[in-house]
């Protein structure tokens, strides 16, 4: 039977049925574990695991009393600022270092430090340097993603086949022209893919930063909900975070295909 | 051969690379004289140093000892006088056919550039595809773009480094005919590096047969047959047999 054939993807309806099937089973188990008229008769109390309807019912208070949208925007603002700053600095610098290796050697110690330090360990230092306000969150994201962007951009440029450089040379292009007119456009599509992966990472890091001295943001809301024992809010926020991450990644992928229509593999 | 129609002269060319197991000799005293306007082929076994030889002629690499001169002057850095056509498609995927062909013409004014692009797009038979992108073209058409882009900078010499290696057999035959036509039309000095003996027989005025590494020139064979050539005709087949024998893979026929 073809469904058991090695490495064969099932038809679309089959994929939906299989994934959806698991979701249904989980939902059923969840409902069973949390059903009961009174708290005492429930298998699991609502502070540990609220029922599906309790989670849905928490949406109203999350949006109105806890100002969900304000927190969503606060989180996105921090990620986009920190990430954007890292793109603006890291990508051009990395591409230049990929083309001119001495620059890469010069920056190697800093990049090695940045790539290998456990990122949470930077939080105290960013608080000392950038205070406790927004600047600290933005700089934290910047520091967390910049070294990776730098090395991704550099390795994409070094990875380009020498033939392209030689072609530029025989067609009379200078080193700078080869960089701007050949190496940059050739490496950009793959760098964009790496940036999409790094954005996922940045989105994860911001939750870490928002656990400290914040009065808004999804990380802050999570901590508040835990303190107040509003487990249904925790569930909702987790779903919202996942949804945001997926939507942003798909958006970036769509944007990428529009920018590089000649790359059918993206 | 008189001294003044020699385009490229290679004298006692040695090239060594420093490898993991010490020095490796790649070229071991190569002597060659290539004439102005000639179609010259260099054949040899895989890995014998053919491409290294071509890279030294182009200025991408430098000889360990010996000398290489073009028009009597030592070879310097890569220059648009010597343009490469490679087997890997080094055409730029984000540029249209016309923009690819115009790549080496950045210093020119717009009307002049457009005129040159139109001329070479037509010469390689790509009219109507000026605004197409490389991914929309077949392998043979992409190869034509490479040729047009190389010809557009009006080089003295075209270096063809196994240019048809990535094409299927039928397209390869078609492209050989095209290259013959373009060569006759433009009169450029062409240096072809290949391990395809038929290709050398069909295209070249003279064929230099290299030995295995470290390479020396074993023989240089003339091919005065008129073009277009049919590699099935007896004289071409005789030449083919000779080349294969020199290469040490002669048929047991």
SSE inventory with pairings:
The complex is a heterodimer of chains A (266) and B (253).
Chain A: H1 12-34, H2 52-57, H3 59-64, H4 68-99, H5 101-116, H6 123-130, H7 134-158, H8 162-170, H9 175-209, H10 218-227, H11 231-259
Helix pairs in contact in A: 4-5, 4-7, 4-9, 4-10, 5-7, 6-7, 7-9, 8-9, 9-11, 10-11
Chain B: E1 6-19, E2 22-35, E3 39-43, H1 50-58, E4 65-70, E5 73-74, E6 82-86, H2 97-101, H3 110-123, H4 139-152, E7 157-161, H5 169-186, E8 189-194, H6 197-203, E9 206-210, E10 217-222, H7 234-247
Parallel strand pairs in B: 3-8, 3-9, 6-7, 7-8
Antiparallel strand pairs in B: 1-2, 1-4, 4-5, 9-10
Helix pairs in contact in B: 3-4, 6-7
Task: Describe this entry's structure for a reader.
The complex is a heterodimer of chains A (266) and B (253). Helices cover 75% and strands 0% of the residues of chain A. Chain A is mostly helical and 266 residues long. In chain A, 30% of the residues are buried. Helices cover 32% and strands 27% of the residues of chain B. In chain B, strand 1 and strand 2 form a beta hairpin. Chain B contains seven helices and ten strands. Chain B is an alpha/beta fold and 253 residues long. Chains A and B meet through helix 8 and helix 9 of A and strand 6 of B.
